Target: Type-4 uracil-DNA glycosylase
Amino acid sequence: MKEVLGVSEVFLGERYEVRDKRSLLEAIRRQVFQCRKCPLYRTKTNYVFGDGNPDAGLMLVGEAPGRDEDLQGIPFVGRAGKLLTELLEEAGLDREKDVYIANVLKCRPPGNRDPKPDEIAACSPYLDAQIRIIKPRVLGALGRYSGHFLSGQNLPLSSLRGRVLQSIYGIKLVVTYHPAAILRNPNLIDRSRKDFELMLKLLRE
Model:
């Protein structure tokens, strides 16, 4: 029987209650907190595992923790996180009830630089386990690195967003801008709003 981070594939293929999801996620979280697979563990303040409702229909995946996330150990709590919460609310989604949020990387890269391929390769099994435990109906990729990982397509973000894709998990995927990119270029916000509206539409189908 093949295992994914110590959790059997057979069990991951089953349906189970929210309390079981929480227990499985906690088992993965403990492994993350002991991770030494890449040098980022030496420079991080806190591991940033994930946050939200494990039974949510929508799972959002960012790229890597920033400074505020590194300090608090929670994804999307800084300015970008505030904007993300606003975008969700505008689309009619409650961040705590309707969404689970994680990142491709669980540790902050120094200086908020882009994730490196070897870091993504080392950390992605944790995200893989989170997705397979949560089993969302819709995946939302925030930024090109999560878009590349979830779609399996190494295309520009402009070619990935604005439409429904099939993720590598067989789950419907919408790729949009990272909130930090919108803060740098506010002209992107209207397109991002449309992407979140598309996520909501898929959830309602």
Q: What stands out?
A: Residues 7 and 24 are 8 Å apart (CA to CA). DSSP finds eleven helices and eight strands in the chain.
